Every structure is written in C-alpha cells, then in structure tokens.
Amino acid sequence: MKKKIEFASHPANLWLVRHCVRQFLQDHSFTTREVDLMVLGVDEACTNIIRHAYHLAEDQLICLSLESYQRGVRFRLRDYGEGFDGTRYVSRPLDSPRPGGLGMHLIRHAFDHVDYLLKRKGTLLVLTKFQGKSPAVAASAALVG
To answer: How far apart are CA 110 and CA 34, in angstroms?
Structure first.
C-alpha cells in the first residue's frame, strides 16, 4: 500500500500529517509506543523542514509518501528548500540542560533507518521502520544469545 500527501509548510498543517501517519499505521502490527514514536518522528522531521529548509516560510511544498511493504513501513519526506546532510549533524548530549537540538535523536530513535539524500534542490528524507525486531537488533541478539 502506498499513499502520498502534499502540503504547504505551514505549522498548522502538522496536525493533518500526524493524523495521516497514525491512520496509515493502524493497519500494521506495531506497538502503541512504536506508532507514537513514528508519528512524533515524522512530525519532528516536518518541523525541521519548515524551520531549517524553508526558514519558516509557510507556503513551500512538502511531499510525504507513506509506503507499506512486507517487512515494515517507509516514509519519504521531500522538500525543495535548503539542502541538509544528516550524516554531518551531531545531536547534542541528552544530559545537556539547554532546550532544542534533540529532534535528530528522536527521529533516529523512532526509526530503524534514517537516510538523507541530497537532491539538486532540497532533500529527500527516508525513514524506515521494520515490523518486529530490526535487523540490527536481531543480529546483536543472535551474537549475545
């Protein structure tokens, strides 16, 4: 199953994004916690696009595709703003008292794979979550057990 929504970069549209992601995930066997984290992760990614790629402009295009496949789900977020290389970004320490800077940590915690693909104009963010244990968790469990 695949769905796609396009919306303007206005923060008021984020409720619709959260609703669509939650509805999409209802047909999957993720735990409530996993669903909540994925909804929050996609919301945070959209907020980052609005804030950093579009510098708070409220009329720019964001495309979200929601895809199911046999092993899990994949969300693709496409923006056409200032490019972002997520591999070069380092989250602040979790014990740091200052506000902000935890969005990337949250996104990486919610999904098994987080890939940033720089495009000629903008960025494609691919968020993948496997059903059940992720391959990395399963592999480490096999090594330990």
So the answer is: 7
The stretch 39-44 carries a mean pLDDT of 98
Domain boundaries, given as residue ranges, for the chain: 2-144
Taking Cα atoms as reference points, which of 85, 39, 95 lies closest to residue 64?
Answer: 39
The β-bridge partners of 76 are 65, 126
Of all residues in the chain, the percent with pLDDT exceeding 70 is 78
With 0.90 as the threshold, say if the pTM is over it. no
Select from 38, 4, 126, 8 the least CA-distant residue to 75.
126
The span from the CA of 60 to the CA of 36, in Å, is 26
Query: Which fold does the domain 2-144 belong to in CATH?
Result: Heat Shock Protein 90 (3.30.565)
Give tens-digit pLDDT for 1-15.
899 999 999 999 999
